[in-house]
Amino acid sequence: MRRRDVLRYGAVAAGAVGVGLPAIRPAAARDQRRVAVLGAGVGGLTAAHELAERGFEVTVYERRLVPGGKARTLYAPRTGTGGRRDLPGEHGHRAVFGFYHNLPDTLRRIPLPGGGTVHDNLATVEWIELARNGGRLTTPIPLRDWKPAPGDAGSLVTSLTGLIGENLRLPPWESAFLAKQFAMQFTSCTERRFGQWEYVDWWRYIQADRMSQDYQRLWGGGVQILQALKPRTASTRTCGQGFEAIFCDLAGRGSDGPVDRIFNGPTSEAWIEPWAAHLRSLGVRFAFGCSVEKLRLHQGRVEAAAARGPDGRPARIDADWFIAAVPADRASRLWDSALRAADPRLGAMDGLQQTWCNGIQFFLPRPSGVVRGHIEHVDSPWKLVSVPQSAFWRAPFARTWGDGTEQESLSVVISDWETPGPLHGKPARNCTRAEVAQEVWAQLKADLKELDKAPPDRWYLDEAITEQGGQLRNDDTFLMNTTGSWDLRPEAATAVGNLFLAADYVRTHSNVDFASMETANEAGRRAAAAVLAAAGAARGGAVRTFQGYEPPELAPAKDQDRERWRRGLPHILDTERR
């Protein structure tokens, strides 16, 4: 733990954790208003925010020493000198897309010292680059010029064919087929999406096996680049809904703001720390270094949670309402036989799968010269996405972070840890941390000629990736969408009367349901709304959740498909089944 973190969070931890005491307890409360939020990621902080605004007494328990979960900034220890801060890195590329609605609403409700809100700290990304190697043409795509026009199914196919063919240079027949498959998704009724497409994997749906390598990499591997959705296992429903949201966003339909945004500083500084400060002003208490180990069920309700405090001593958490906001793999460990019997949906979560999707930061001695935007490395075996993150930050990098010699932070997300890389011939998870850095740089360099030949001396791989016994281990896995996984995901309210869930595995009902900051935020809202309903609390009004945009022009096509679904007929564009 860095001294800066001790100073920043020590007072909060001391206020919420009785040092040397065998128990951790929220302050006494009346009228069943004590809430224990287990986990300080986006879902947990969102639930705490909504409930604190409505007068609940909330304590957030977090195993780490800082809030934010996967959204927090990762600082390279002992790299700041001369009054500068440690070099900052991110778990991922931190995109806040225009089709997000729940998350931006929360950002607008977090005040900044001196005026304004955290939403003002979003910087617009105007370019996405499809970086290619092997002589293929790299394609920079301006995010302000795509205007696909939704219409009926026929005109939608025509519009998408032109858009795909013009910008991605696929063979005409592949562009036309893919456009038809997209249009079929966009005009499928809800019943077909959940009754048919949920159980078809994306690779098979787009018939990638019979297409060109470029098609496979752009539209098969492309979903993995977007959000670690493995194309051979990801649900077509999830991928289809995501692409529909992206296309509508590009068309400026139903967007909350620009297509792509990132924060104008390290995420913890631009968002998480102001958020935690605002929650404290609302009365929220934090207990850092507190690991929850068991939920104790008594007469159909959670009586208490067993935990260990920062000193490793056993502790007890008492509350009226409990919100589990930890990742799916950690949540499943909390469900003992009594909880699983009380709510079988908790046991179904064992079938959810996890994957690795982690970031590495390169701290460059000179500006990289790459495009100022998100760069998708289409041909990279490890499905990389990079962004010169510090190019969007307001503070001058060299004068603010590090030792004054680093000029830029290049952030890279590694979404495939299973495919061998060309430099060492090994999957990422079989490399050492140093080999991961060397391999990632080699794959970046194959696409980006602007980069130096050798990797910089300063880099920082996600601290969740550790070496143990010659193998890499990951303490922060990523929920992986798979076909049929919707059936395994619980709602925010459980069958246990005072237990609720607020993480990205919870069923969400907007236009995206893959693991993201947006889905975690929506899950936190749904958990808070469920607590309000169970407590019979009306103060502060209902917790709002935002629905995804659906083009009204496509409503007749969806109604037609609903009738075909009821009659047992395939979609009208499903020429392979007709």
Automatic annotation (TrEMBL):
<dbReference type="InterPro" id="IPR036188">
    <property type="entry name" value="FAD/NAD-bd_sf"/>
</dbReference>
<dbReference type="InterPro" id="IPR002937">
    <property type="entry name" value="Amino_oxidase"/>
</dbReference>
<protein>
    <submittedName>
        <fullName>FAD-dependent oxidoreductase</fullName>
    </submittedName>
</protein>
<dbReference type="Pfam" id="PF01593">
    <property type="entry name" value="Amino_oxidase"/>
</dbReference>
<dbReference type="InterPro" id="IPR050464">
    <property type="entry name" value="Zeta_carotene_desat/Oxidored"/>
</dbReference>
<feature type="compositionally biased region" description="Basic and acidic residues">
    <location>
        <begin position="556"/>
        <end position="566"/>
    </location>
</feature>
<feature type="region of interest" description="Disordered">
    <location>
        <begin position="549"/>
        <end position="578"/>
    </location>
</feature>
<feature type="domain" description="Amine oxidase">
    <location>
        <begin position="43"/>
        <end position="532"/>
    </location>
</feature>
